[in-house]
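# nightly structure sweep
# worker-07 picked up a monomer target from the shared queue
# config: single-sequence mode, recycle default, output format = structure tokens
# input follows
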Amino acid sequence: MGTPEFSVPMLKAIHESNHDLVSVVTAPDKPAGRGRKLSKSAVKQYAEEHGISVYQPTNLKSEEFKSQLHDLDPNVIVVVAFRMLPKEVWAYPKFGTFNLHASLLPQYRGAAPINWAIINGETNTGLTTFFIDEKIDTGSIIDNVVLPIEKNDNVKDVYEKMIPKGTALVMETLKKIQFGEVETKTQSKSDDGLKMAPKLTKENMRIDWNTSANDIFNHVRGLSPYPLAWTTLINDGKEINCKIAKVNCVDHSHDTPVGAVTIENKAMYVKAGKGMIEILELKLSGKRLMDVKTLLNGYTISENSKMV
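# output follows
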């Protein structure tokens, strides 16, 4: 069970193994693009290309899907980037339903674990396989693997590191289940004292210029290359929505107010609560993503401009 591109390498590995892959379950086709044509998930595309049966239930609790599940009669369900399952689904297989989660559980339970690990300045993250239970990301841990987050890594960098590690972890977990070698570790159901990974929203993606330059640096790379951190540029009295894709912390003292924008030698600096940020790549509303030098060749930043 899975939907996005991240799920495909794990699906491919299972398909090419000696396990009997009876079916794939993925999200229904969705309208996409200007023509609003129905678009297949990456998982469905792979399955169809390789002759694997595909189910796309809109309601996982429906009698129709329950009947389909019973006909398939899986003894294990593998979940990679799908959606929350009802108990009648995850409890059905004899050997359980396990999920691959992109963090070292119990830390970073939730929808956006890669993003929040980077935003919070972690130097390590990882992947965990666990048996699904009633609550989100709280089931018994089967196995995990650690991977580093380098200082300049963004979401894409960490995502790409996770794909081979996650694929190997899924296959190792299946092997342990197959040969009865699973030794689980129970998680606390409580979120108290844990760092969480809530869904990304417009509010929590906004840059707070009152924080330190280092915090802003982490915030930007934790949302890059998608969906991108954002702020409002006030330039020549006009408010312009602005998405920031790449920044640097700079050792550059300045006595201007927080959020003040300074242009020096075709470089753009913004005063943070502590330190300075150099903007390297950004996207102004109505314009494409570009580096600052390209932007400044055709766009004037006024002397009193600021970001808020």
